[in-house]
Write a structure and sequence with these properties.
The chain is about 30% helix and about 25% strand. The protein is of the alpha+beta class. Helix 4 packs parallel to helix 5 and helix 10 packs parallel to helix 12. It is globular and about 65 Å long.
């Protein structure tokens, strides 16, 4: 199937990790494989254009962009509606991924989320978790959802607090609640071999098997494990009982990690993407959830984080946050998080001397108006007092604009429209279609953070209208780029009128 692109038409969507390479224009030469999610992040077999076109194939598709000509897998649906990117999204949403009822707890968005991973890594303990929570408050950050990451249990598949590391988990959870922290626990679909849980699940036929009928042993970042077959109701009931016990203890929800399509056998009866979707479908029942990777789960009631980014300014770090978040949003993953502030690759934090404090500040400023703002590395530990004050200002800025963010979140719950949007979603100016380093929150807030090391200003495109900066300056634009001096602060621009 071949299509001809219009001269000014651009496409966005597909794999979130391709955000840094988007949009796809009439000059692009790109080969996209959206048949199976082999990325560590979200993917949807969906592409949207700024002229009202959309491409969709629930079975997966290959798409080739060759300088104005598009070739895609036979059986791909080509949709067309009157309008631009917004109309394309709404039409595709109606036909391809009608939004699910959103059950997510609002506390995921009203304050920063805190994750113990980088501070404690695999050494999660009751004392360490409580100290982390207490230091958050002692350093004048507001309480928020607290995620206890990998290492709190003795093995995978035995989802109980380690007695050696957590002497009294019920009292710990109660104390965290008193301090204002809802608590989530990291879990995965893996099962440690040579455990009682493995033997029981193998006997009951609840593990993913290879073509030879034996349990599939996946090689993932923590070694080798069997995999719970979440496509089977009995497996889901087995896991649900363990999570029910944890919730009875005081746990509020779960971080559902792994589940990547690539960890399932490619020659099995069920595809890796189907297993990935089954893992996400199970997690959707919880009002506190987080996923890093899904396949075909656009429009679901899931908090979805960008995959672990490098502690860098480049395309694997800070520069990827806004483009990837834009693709997340346009593929139906509205309740997004731009990774942990400073980057989620924990090995980058082993040496204090290698950390770039300015990068951490800028990361916080990018994240502060996105749906979820998440800390892991303790900013009070790794930053100077001056730089830490800038991070606190970013948190304060989030609080200041929380009504606008909550308005966009409420609209998303009702209509399915994304919270975070590229400028082309709200404005038809031709210049907006290729801007991937600014974003809108709902209809009213324009966010244009500094993304280059050492910069104190940046060019900002202002669509036609009146804009009020967070520092109180009123700017009138006929649709133009202006250089904005920001110093070490971030400016948010609020739309005040449609025309000048």
């Amino acid at each position: 199937m071949k299509l001809k692109m219009m001269p000014d038409e651009v496409f966005l969507g597909g794999a979130v990790t391709d955000g840094i390479r988007q949009p796809y224009t009439a000059a692009s030469t790109e080969e996209l494989d959206l048949t199976r999610n082999e990325t560590p992040n979200q993917m949807m077999p969906l592409l949207l254009s700024t002229t009202g076109h959309w491409l969709w194939n629930p079975a997966g598709m290959r798409v080739s962009f060759q300088k104005g000509e598009i070739q895609c897998t036979e059986g791909t649906t080509v949709g067309q509606c009157c309008g631009g990117l917004r109309e394309s999204y709404l039409d595709a949403m109606q036909h391809c991924f009608p939004p699910h009822e959103v059950k997510l707890d609002n506390r995921l968005f009203t304050a920063p989320v805190y994750n113990t991973w980088i501070e404690l890594t695999f050494h999660q303990t009751q004392d360490g978790v409580l100290q982390y929570a207490q230091e958050i408050l002692q350093n004048d950050l507001p309480p928020g959802v607290l995620m206890i990451d990998d290492g709190w249990s003795d093995c995978y598949g035995r989802w109980q607090f380690s007695r050696e590391k957590f002497r009294d988990p019920a009292s710990m959870l109660a104390q965290l609640h008193r301090l204002g922290f809802p608590v989530m626990l990291w879990i995965c679909p893996f099962v440690t071999p040579d455990t009682l849980e493995y033997r029981e699940l193998e006997r009951r036929g609840l593990l993913v098997t290879s073509e030879n009928g034996l349990p599939h042993i996946a090689h993932w970042w923590n070694g080798w494990s069997a995999v719970l077959d979440m496509t089977k109701p009995a497996a889901r009931r087995w896991l649900k009982q363990q999570l029910d016990d944890l919730q009875a203890l005081g746990v509020d929800g779960f971080k559902f990690d792994a589940g990547d399509s690539v960890y399932y056998p490619s020659d099995g009866i069920t595809t890796g993407d189907e297993h990935c979707r089954a893992w996400a479908a199970f997690g959707e029942q919880y009002s506190f959830n987080e996923f890093r990777v899904t396949s075909g789960a656009g429009g679901w009631s899931l908090t979805q984080r960008l995959c672990d980014k490098d502690h860098s300014w480049g395309n694997t770090g800070l520069a990827a946050l806004i483009p990837d978040a834009i693709v997340q949003s346009l593929t139906g993953h509205s309740f997004l998080c731009p990774d942990m502030i400073g980057g989620g690759e924990y090995r980058n934090f082993y040496s204090q001397e290698r950390l770039d404090q300015e990068l951490v500040v800028r990361w916080a400023q990018v994240a502060c108006l996105m749906p979820v703002m998440q800390f892991s590395a303790a900013p009070w530990r790794i930053l100077s007092s001056e730089n830490y004050a800038e991070v606190q200002q970013a948190v304060a800025l989030r609080k200041r604009y929380l009504p606008a963010l909550e308005k966009a979140l409420a609209a998303c719950r009702k209509t399915g429209e994304p919270v975070l949007r590229p400028l082309a979603y709200n404005f038809t100016d031709a210049a907006c279609s290729r801007i991937m380093d600014q974003f809108m929150i709902g209809n009213d807030l324009l966010v244009a953070p500094i993304l280059e090391k050492g910069a104190t200003s940046r060019p900002v495109y202002f669509p036609k209208g009146c804009w009020l900066s967070s520092s109180g300056h009123l700017l009138e634009s006929s649709g133009e780029v202006r250089t904005v001096e920001m110093g070490i602060h971030i400016e948010i621009f609020e739309k005040r009128c449609e025309s000048i």
